Amino acid sequence: MTATTEERSVLSHPVVKAPAKKEKPSWLEKTVAGIAESIQRAVFTEEHARKDGWLQKVDPRAKLIMFLALVLASSITGSILALALLYTVTLVAARASQVPFDFFVKRVWVGIPLFAGIVVIPSLFFIPGDRFLVFSIPGLISAVIFVARVGVSVSLAVLLVLVTPWADVLKSLQALKAPSIFILLLSMTYRYIFLFLRSATGLFEARKSRTVGRTSGGEQRGWITASMGGLMHRSFKMSNEVYTAMLARGFSGQVRSYNSYRMKGGDWLALAVTVIIAAVALTLGQLVK
Amino acid sequence: MYINKDLEPVFHLRDVRYLYNGRQEALSGIDLDIHRGEQVVLLGANGSGKSTLLKMLDGIVAPSRGTMRVLGQDVAAVAAGEESFKFHREVGLVFQDPDIQLFSATVFDDVAFGPLQLGLSKDEVRSRCEQAMEQMEINHLAKRAPFELSGGEKKRAAIASVLSLQPDIILLDEPTASLDPRTKWVLVNLITRLGQSGKTIITTTHELEIVPIISNRVVVIGEERRILADGTPEQILGDRDLLIKANLIHPQLHEFGAINYSVKS
Q1: Which of B54, B116, B143, B172 to mutate to test binding with chain A, by most A CBs within 10 Å of its CB?
Q2: Is the pLDDT of residue B258 over 60?
């Protein structure tokens, strides 16, 4: 079979030399991939919400109030002992809910010392009082309390999200009279962020599959700007279409949702015990500093 | 089912035109009457304006020019939202892309969205949702998030979200596009059953093999974005030149004469 003129032209075209080193993914590619991975992991964690543990059986509204009571107690108390009590309760609850211990602890404590620690660094030096080496002792104590408080609060939030499907978290917010429009927006944002990330990942992959050789920094920046514009355009288009789909099913501006929760004896008991623990932690905080 | 053409049509369009962004013509001079109980297929190639026409029939897009009445009222009033609530109790649209239609946290919430907007009681909402999910065989997916579903499951959930409104008129935009044969067949069966139960079904497609099964009337929209032909499935599918002109078959791809369509009796 003989080649056509076009084929010959393509065949005679100089072969593009492969880059000596494999091109590293750009910061934007890494960021998008990181966000996508985090969200996928958040979804993956619904695996724990489907387990047959203690907290999974508690009514989501009760769980939300229990969580709020304990977070409030940990925010108000200034006692390490009270914070230790609250954290122990959180760990016991996690254990009873079949959440793997090391996964739960690592998930909370890997980032907190870094982010909360940065905030408290100045207090280690500038709070007046006795000194241990270059550090102020009252500053050290307040830094430990602050980091512990953040740790307990984040642990509670992580535990709530791990043992409760996202849809139930949203519905329990609604049951607690959070504005429906806020809940609808939150739910839709969560839903569509996946589609947005899928579009963004698709764009990167499509570009990668057609990129031969190295691209300059300027070319990459130009492409990123154009992609951002394209993504924004797609997002606007999709938001209009979604709104149209809502109108097509009778949406008239007022959000209504369905929930079929019923509080049982066990839910009331769990709620009461948690409120008592929060009160004990607060009292302990007042008595033992 | 007997179709009484003496009654006022449910959709009445005269010289309807639609311009995207005020410039690009999506529909050009459409004259169409559709009566209650008809099962109509809008047949056309990509970009012929089928989806735009379907959105117009659903009262969510108003024509740029021409006269259009839906269920006896001016479509502009429906599109402006004045009569929208009442209108959408009777007319339901299934979008081509199910991701647009599934915006809630779970499949059940999406199916319940329409009935809840109608202000129905909790028991009625639950009963309608269960019935719609049963029809689409997706009861087991009720608590799943839409992003966890496959393409076919999403399509079924999107259709269930419209069926739960129990509309008399159902508009389906390319319902079988990109589906595997089994799911496609489930949908074809469902559309046929809905038609047999007396509902008015209007479906857009360019898949010729399902046309005679799901319709008793076919309207062909050409690439000039106007109606090329209107007839029975037998008349339309038997007109090879028409199908070539409307870019629905290609002489080198289709041996149309050799395809044995199981035309509905």
Answers
A1: B116
A2: no
Digit-coded pLDDT (tens) for B244-255: 999 988 876 665
Q: Are B164 and B192 in contact (CB under 8 A)?
A: no
Phi, psi of A103 (to 5 degrees): -60, -45
Tokens 């990129």 found at: A211
Chain A residue numbers with beta carbons less than 8 Å from the beta carbon of B128 are none
Ordered by start, the domain boundaries in chain A are: 61-165+264-289
Q: Where are the beta strands (DSSP E) in chain A?
A: 131-132, 135-136
* Stated length of chain A: 289
Largest CA distance in chain B: 57
Task: Using alpha carbons, select from B248, B255, B151, B198 the residue that is nearest to residue B35.
Answer: B198
Tell me the pLDDT band of B201, cut-offs 50, 70 and 90.
Answer: very high
* Whether B19 contacts B25, CB under 8 Å: yes
**Interface membership of A257 toward B (CB under 8 Å):** yes
Q: Kindly state the tokens that stand for A276.
A: 């008592």
Confirm if B59 and B87 have CB atoms less than 8 A apart. Answer: yes
Which bin fits B98, alpha (ψ -120 to 50), beta or left (φ > 0)? alpha
How many CB atoms lie under 10 A from the CB of residue A27? 10
Does A256 sit within 8 Å of B145, measured CB to CB?
Answer: no
* Residues from chain A contacting residue B101 (CB–CB below 8 Å): 245
Whether B103 sits inside 8 A of A245 (CB atoms) is: yes
DSSP B44-78: E-TTSSHHHHHHHHTTSS--SEEEEEETTEEHHHH
**In chain B, residues 111-130 whose CB comes closer than 8 Å to chain A:** 112-114, 116-119, 122, 125-126
How far CA B72 is from CA of A193, B33, B83, in Å, comes to 40, 12, 11
pLDDT in tens, B223-232: 999 999 999 9
**Distance separating alpha carbons of residues B45 and B222, to the nearest angstrom:** 7
Of B67, B66, B70, residue with least CA distance to B83? B70
User: Rounded to two decimals, what is the model's pTM?
Assistant: 0.72
* The amino acid at B131: Q
Count of C-beta atoms within a 10 Å radius of residue B121: 9
Among candidate residues B94, B104, B217, the one with its CA nearest the CA of residue B156: B94
Q: Is B99 on the interface with A (CB under 8 A)?
A: yes
